[in-house]
Design a protein that fits this description.
The complex is a heterodimer of chains A (295) and B (280). Chain A is of the alpha/beta class and 295 residues long. Chain A has helices at residues 40-47, 69-72, 91-100, 107-117, 132-144, 162-179, 190-196, 214-218, 231-240, 261-270, 285-294; strands at 2-11, 14-24, 29-33, 55-60, 63-64, 76-80, 150-154, 182-187, 199-204, 207-213, 219-228, 244-248, 252-255, 275-282. In chain A, strand 7, helix 6 (162-179) and strand 8 form a beta-alpha-beta unit. Chain B has one domain (2-275). Helix content of chain B is 73%, strand content 4%. In chain B, strands 1-2 form a two-stranded antiparallel sheet. In chain B, helix 5 (64-98) packs parallel to helix 8 and helix 5 crosses helix 10 (200-219). Chain B starts with a helix and ends in a 5-residue tail after the last helix. Classes of the chains: A alpha/beta (295), B mainly alpha (280).
Chain lengths: 295, 280
Amino acid sequence: MIELRNVTKKFGRNTAVNDLWLTVAAGDIFGLLGHNGAGKSTAIGMMLGQVWPTAGEVKLCGYEVARERQQALQRVGAIFEAPAFYNDLSGWRNLEILSSYTAPTPARRIQEVADWVGLSGRIVDKVKTYSHGMRARLALAQALLPQPTLLILDEPGDGLDPEGIHEMRQTIQRLHRELGLTILLSSHLLVEVEQVCLSIAVMNQGRKVFQGSIAETRQGRGWLRLRTGNFAEAVAILRESGLITQEREGRFILPAAGVGADQVVERLVERRQPVFEIAPEEETLEGFYLSLMKK
Amino acid sequence: MIYYQLRNELWKMFGKKRTYIGFGAFLTAHASILLIFRYWQGPRRDMVHRLELLGYASEKFISSLTMAVAVLVPVAVFLMPLYVALVGGDLLAKEVEDGTLRMILARPISRFRLALVKWLAGLIFSVALSLALGGLGAAFASCLFPAGGLFVFLPMEGIFSVFEPGEGWSRYAIATVIVSGNAATVMGLALMFSCFNVKPAAATILALSVLLTSRIIQEIPYFHDLQPWFFTYHMNYWIKMFEARVPWAEILQSLCILFGFNLTLLIVGCVAFQVRDIKS
């Protein structure tokens, strides 16, 4: 659905995106992570044909954006942080205006989308009277009007209160479930990304430093969580047997190379140490992200 | 499709309060100038004196038509460029500043097409503003002065003419329509600057700076021979409607030159807009 090959973007001497390769499959909810200035928005700008790449190729829905922008964006919806509208016009008129840049949209369709996002009661009011949350819904409505197959969300949670963020998360999941959209979500709200995305890419200083599934990020680095009657005693037994190399936080052990959880349990039981729980450590996305940034 | 996109631009343009500043300023200017003419004897006495020197009956020519032209000329030359530059400078740069251009350019519309519909919307605004200028002048003057012939005295242009009411009104109407070419030129200049990476106010100021610089250079006596090379020289074509014999060939020549100038501005603007990056 989205394909970036060897893409570089330079602004003067500053390289905002450096040799980026990125693929987003149809049906995915894909998170693009990175701190401010990592190159996420520039990458999205290049996907939408708003920023011209210095080198490389960007394809959307099978069309190259630089040469076939109209076909590439035909079934694409996008939402940006702090969505901007024509404040002196009504929500309805804003939808009419923005959708007509794709194709003239019948009033029935506008009403349908306004209902879907829950704005039907206020759609004829001027946008300047809208709350932040209502503007976010209007932004979603304009993105959905062209019946997209791909939705690009650039920092959509910025400025939303916890209730708004919760609503955004529910909406993304609903869009994926009910409309079957492929979604690219750029964010630095790691908890949100962890909860809604199926796969992610992490950018740092214009480069991609990781791409994979959320499940991959949760795999710890070999640590086991161990709950026993006496952790210190268990660690001493395991060290003495050469089964572990490290322990931390009074609950994690790092088995020696080639040692499995079964051997750890066997030895502890032999030495009459009760084992209540042993499981691989599941890393949070935050932990995974921070470890990537440290590299 | 282009109809819907043009309609959008007009909705956006006429949905903003600042679009109406020009119309409001014209109302104020007309009211002020015409009330001075009506109730202050000095300017009237001067006009009467000039007419009577040439043997014309002043009561026939101190009319609503004469007053409408007396207001039309300075307002069209000095005030109108200000408001079209304001709107023209906003057309693209304000959308970039507000962030709405990113919303538009997430859609499958080409930048060339977008710039073109904005230029067309600006053209419609220029015509509307010119017609409002002429219409308001005629309406105000008719309320304050009696009907009669047209007396035009424009020493800088070498014009000193009198016309019967019928011919006078038709010349006034044509001048009102064709002055929109001037408005469109200033608007095109501001839109071109608006296509570059500048703030809306900068686009407006740059357009007005080019306009004023061209006028200043054109008026330097030593540059007299170079006058036809300045676009502002050709922007005076509409005033020639008030010469005793209308120099149609000269008017047509100026219109053609301005058309070429406008086309160049549009092309430069489109190219600048096409190659630039649009970022938040």
